[in-house]
Amino acid sequence: MKISIALATFNGAAFLGEQLDSIKRQSLQPDELIVCDDSSTDDTLEIARRFAREVGFKVVVDAHEKLPTYNENFVRAIGQCSGDIVVLCDQDDVWSDNKLLTAVSEFQDETVMAVTHRIQVVDERLRPTPLVLPRDPRYGKFDVTNLDPWSAPGGMNLVFRRIPIAPWLLDAPPLSKWCDAPAAFDEWIFFLAGIAGKMVLLPDVLGVWRRHSTSTTGSPESTTKSWSRGYQWKLAASTGAAHYAYTAAVADSRAEVAERIVRQSAHAALRAQEGARLYRRISETWRRRSRLHEDGSSRGARLLILAEMLQKLDYRPRGSGGLGAKSFLKDSFAVLRGPRTLPARPTVHSGQGGS
């Protein structure tokens, strides 16, 4: 299998060399590295071009005009990849020497569309924090029917099969579960992988995720705080009817993408149809939950909605597209005390969300 690395850069000179060195040390070398640079003004391009002269595999350095967001930069890099397997790469992380060998070996199963692994969160000097993500992982091989539908690994630990997925990245993505906007490229890719086939979640820690003051997704302190159990409980408690209605809209937008794939891809039609049915059912679940938490409803009306949700099996495990037992406890309490008036859904970090 031919392996491509898609690396998006922007003013990454401070850390890029360490990431490139970790690529050079891989026990399984890639076939190509595509570097898309978003108009850096530091030494990023020189570092990338020097690296290209030092290694035995193909390196493309694409210096282009500034794009609106880093999402477009990554999609541009992916579009230039020619490998069977694409490995996403941030400019400021460091990979374990066996990352490519371990992750790519999973694609010997032709039904596997994506592989993700665990990461150690570190500070800018590569000193480990107490945080390893995912914090409460599930390991093994999954498809759209038996994995939490909102699972969204970051790009730094995501590897995927190019041909079934990359062409769809040029289409309009569904809504993001994690902010009021279209899904980011990594959330989009992992969703498509679930529609196209199976996903492998590895227990191995195959890299470090460097958090620093200039990173686009937060400092070590903010990352550690946002993944703490206390913050997660606070986030869950702060969600209400507006958030649940938005989640239903996200599920509908995913179902619409799956239905579009059914119409346009005979090869993926069967799995996509299954995904479309799942997300329509998820949408119905979250709409019922939104009605239960609406202001002004009587206790009797809320009790009837809770009974309907139990009858519809809405509290089945999250891995089956349900809400889970914790949500049942929260909803039962809402029936007894009544819903509270809450602000619009909060913006949360990627991979998180209230229950």
CATH class of the largest domain: Alpha Beta
CATH topology term of the largest domain: Spore Coat Polysaccharide Biosynthesis Protein SpsA, Chain A
Biggest sheet statistics: 10 strands, mixed
Number of strands: 10
Molecular shape: globular
Regions with little confidence, pLDDT below 50 for 5+ residues: 344-355
What is the CATH-assigned architecture of the largest domain?
Alpha-Beta Complex
Number of helices: 12
Oligomer: single chain
Structural class: alpha/beta
What is the CATH superfamily of the largest domain?
Spore Coat Polysaccharide Biosynthesis Protein SpsA, Chain A
Number of domains: 2
| Order of SSEs | EHEHEHEEHEEEEHHEHHHHHH
Structure keywords:
Spore Coat Polysaccharide Biosynthesis Protein SpsA, Chain A, globular, 355 residues, disordered C terminus, alpha/beta, 41% helix, 10-stranded mixed beta sheet
List the helices and strands and how they pair.
Blueprint: E1 3-9, H1 13-24, E2 32-37, H2 44-54, E3 58-63, H3 70-79, E4 85-89, E5 94-95, H4 99-104, E6 112-122, E7 128-133, E8 140-142, E9 158-161, H5 162-165, H6 185-196, E10 198-210, H7 220-226, H8 229-237, H9 241-264, H10 269-292, H11 299-311, H12 325-337
Parallel strand pairs: 1-2, 1-4, 2-3, 6-10
Antiparallel strand pairs: 4-9, 5-10, 6-7, 6-9, 8-10
